[in-house]
Amino acid sequence: MASLRKGFTLIEVIAVLIISATVAIIGIRHLQQPGDLAHDRSCQLARELLQHHVQAYLDDTGSAPSSSMREIATDVYAGRTLPTCPVTSRAFQLDRSGRVRCSDHPE
């Protein structure tokens, strides 16, 4: 005569927990990636805007601003406050080739 089972074995419970944890880890990883991509994109857009102001300054004066770009912190160009990285709030820098760079989000 067969006995009736009432409940789950320890092995079954452990198997369900392992499968659930694996699915949760995969799901969390996919949720984090769009946030990282959004941060990179927002920084890229801020750099592109500042690059436009640098180019306008170069066109007007014939020379590039300094690496800190303080020359374009006027109402004519970028406004009195230069844009910073929207993620870290660190200042952008102008490299020797005239490109606006972010130390936290390399291209």
From TrEMBL:
Transmembrane segments: 7-28
InterPro entries in alphabetical order: N_methyl_site, Pilin-like
Keywords: Membrane, Transmembrane, Transmembrane helix
Protein name: Prepilin-type N-terminal cleavage/methylation domain-containing protein
Domain of life: Bacteria
Species assigned in the record: Novipirellula caenicola
Matching PROSITE patterns: PROKAR_NTER_METHYL
Pfam families: N_methyl
